[in-house]
Amino acid sequence: MSENRIRMPIEPRSFAGMAVAAWLTVVVCAPAPLLGQTMRVDLDTVRAGKFDFGKMWTFEYPPSDYFTATYGFDADERWFERARLSVLRIPGCSASFVSPNGLVATNHHCVRGAVTRVSRPGESLLDNGYSAAALDEERRIPNYHADQLIHIEDVSGEVFAALDRAAGDAERQRAERETVGAIRTRLKGEYGAAGDSVWVQVVKLYHGGRYSAYVFRRFTDVRLVVAAELQAAFFGGDADNFTYPRYDLDFAFLRIYGADGQPHEPTHHFRWSEEGVEEGDVVFVIGNPGSTNRLRALSQLEYQRAVEVPVRIQFYVSRLAALDAFRQAEPRTAEAMNVRNLMFSLSNSLKARTGQLAALRDPLIMKKKWDAERQLRQAIREDAELNRHYGGLFRRLERIQEAKEELGPSYGAFYAFGSPAFSSATLRRAVAAASYLTALATDAPADTVAARRARLLEIGDFPEPLELGYLTARLADLARYLGPDHAITRLALQGESPAEAAARLIEASPLSNAARTARAVDDGSLSDDDPVVRLATVLMPEYLEYVRTFGELSRDEERLESELGRVRFEVYGRSIPPDGTFSPRITDGKVRGYEYNGTAAPPYTTFFGLYDRYNSHGPGTEWDLPNRWRRPPEGLDLSTPLNFVSTADTYGGNSGSPAVTPELELVGLNFDRNIEGLSRDFIYLPERGRNVMVDVRAIRAALDAVYDADRIVAELASGVLYETEAAADAAR
């Protein structure tokens, strides 16, 4: 039995002998980390667990009885309402109200971009941190928002009625679009007293097995109040990402303002805990977990293991290499400094995907997934009505995965093709230029020619070293996945290495530079003979055919996933929560350490550990500290808990999520998972995974002893809004 295959009575598809095998073997440059040492077990005895599908409970299906019975408090409707209205969704992350004056707590890494945007000339708030000494120094973040969920409505009946009347994919898409639009219009009319501040989202739960309409109040006046320094918030850098023990002050404070320009007064907020938590305490983490794959069919997970995840890993590796080479070549330029956030994001994705690949190669995990699917198949077979509607569902999904896998080489060659952040500007211009030249040659209408010309000229430049790196990476993609003998590869490389070919194309074509492109367009010298245009002309038909075919398969798969979600809900109801959808969820867990690498990870770390790491690694490393932290600040108790872990079921998007007690006191802010928790894309295993949180006791200590944010400390303690530090000091 290989690590990629488990033989069972209903056998997952074998990939042996498939056409993708040859190119798959060279796809992954970085080895996947182990998700803990899987014990030797008899796979014949492995069965799906009660909570394998997780605990990402929705507020429309609240687990009131489970919470009450398990944790011994009255988790009634009012408790869930207070929890829901205290939480916010911000771009890419979660946050929460922590005072009656609109003060909001979240992670620093959730607002890195916002911190950069509010920095003024000569400032680097990302590196130096920020604390607004007065209310009028809180800086408004441009083009930013925060959403509060004020109403939920199950609209499955309306949507299903429209879908079930439709014939064919096109009509189903139209019916869904029109029905969802009508629902949004209706609910915005009902809850839209605040005008544009109301936003309605219809969310597919169970991959289309149910539909919920969420009505959010959207706040657009959001201001930065406090942000730690990047080096303190991201202490340990990428090396410590997805690991534990950790020592990160990953926190920031925002404030919500109303239309009148005054601090917003929310109806509910979380009280800031004085005591914090101890090992064994229950915590509830509330936020917006991103998309997971727990409810997908086994055949879909096997496709991800064979094609999708390895391709993405290779993409992240190659683009990170290009970005890093650029930073190394020009470390002091503004452009090099600005790619830091981009590299953080890519590094995070790379580590997450390598962990996912390890999970998909874990025989124990895949056997548990197989057993869960076996039980659902059996339930369908034993119910005549379900069997009539869904009996062939899994085989149809398998056939789609087989067809997608045949497209694997194209998937790899063209992954993220045309991405403005990670794709060569030269090649993107070549595609636009080919379209523009075709319009000229065929005497297309003047407005068509003008539109294509504008698209070509609007493509901006990357710095030259980065452009060379991106073009090299794409040419390497073509060679790696399509093979050296493919017509596209031969034309692109002409016997050279990807780096040599990229340098030649950039030198030979005016499309390598926006200014040269504009001159070539203006003087009419741009032609089909340009070497990059010739490459685009040969490449685009194959790319467009791949996009068309893959799109058809994806639409078929989406429809079948909806059927899978509907039958799963019919069989199990609300006992299984839906996959993550970046919509509000609540999850439960306990503060608990765990065994790893032959030792024990403690339930929480302290500032002592922070300074041990700093002194062990030293300045200039990822464990460096900002200047004002290098010597322990006076008044900082180094035994204060800094980070802690729990078994709560979190995922990407839960960053910034509040961790609260049954009394709804805030005890931590979720910011990461351990490496063993990366399997949560597919399964929830509390014995392995932990979510990692920054302790509110550490945040308060830092505010008081390091950042001199007395007015914020006083507001957290008393709920009183102080306009200046002097006013807060006077009130003490």
Automatic annotation (TrEMBL):
Swiss-Prot/TrEMBL keywords: Aminopeptidase, Hydrolase, Protease, Serine protease, Signal
Gene Ontology biological-process entries: peptide catabolic process; proteolysis
Keyword Calcium: no
Pfam hit, one: Peptidase_S46
InterPro entries on file: Pep_S46 (IPR019500), Peptidase_S1_PA (IPR009003)
GO molecular function, one term: serine-type aminopeptidase activity
E.C. code: 3.4.14.-
Record's protein name: Dipeptidyl-peptidase
Family label: Belongs to the peptidase S46 family.
Keyword Glycoprotein: no
Role noted for this protein: Catalyzes the removal of dipeptides from the N-terminus of oligopeptides.
Taxonomy, superkingdom: Bacteria
